[in-house]
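Session log. Operator J.P. requested a structure for one protein chain; no other inputs attached. Running the standard single-chain path with token output.
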Amino acid sequence: MHLSMSTVSTERCRTADGIIYRPLDGIRLCAEAGFRHIDFNFTHAPKENRPFAGENWESWVSQVRDTCAEYGVTVGQTHAYWFWLKDMTSREHWEWSEAMVRRSLAATAMLAPGGWMVTHPRTVFDAEGFNREKTLEYNYARCSELGELARKHGVGIAIENLFPLPEKIAYCAQPEELLELLDRLHDPVFGICWDFGHANMAKLDHLRALELVTPHLKVTHIHDNKGKGDDHFPPSFGNIPWNTVMPVLKRLGYKGNLNLEVSTYNTIPALIPDALRFMHAAGSELVRMFEKG
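Structure written below.
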């Protein structure tokens, strides 16, 4: 069992002059706080004409890989670029966004050979609201295409549970829906990423949900909330019962990392190193809960 930290927690920093995007600094800061494993997140990598969206994206990913090596950090998992279907303004915008997802998969092979890339399922709405049949068909077709590409790259795809949108259904907010999609795909290149914060927002019974998903569970997103917002608090700052959840996760045979996805976005820049050290301590306590069983 290893403790891991997502770079989405450190790659952006809000300052008086705006938002600084600094994923390479984030790797260094995580390493200095004690983390030896990270989840490299591509969510913001292509935005605002950043290097990942350009022709020389492989050189930039190589720089990420070299920075990890410099600081003794291993990438155990990644998170693909993601987008909402409702935000797509044109066919070209949608095609570009999907191209960034496929690029995330190729980059995962560079950073985490044999590892897992997390992706979000999509929810399809029509004039009458949520369309379950169209949603399943859309996700099956999209994941099937990504699965073939993942196999060529030698990596796996972990589908993440989501959380309900305000007054709207989000497909795969329920564990049964994740299992439905995996059963339809019927392909070992796919697994599950279980996001504990999303599960808490969906008002799930954590223990029952883990019983269902752990046989397919490959990676985790560890963060806390109080069941209302996707706050990405450190463990124990919300109401997830970690002292109960961690022993069950061990009993069920989970073999992957405990990956923190906690935000420092609004932290005073000078205090981010202290915040990361605290997160390492909080995550280490979860590891102890898991190992104690």
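Operator note: The chain has a mean pLDDT of 92.
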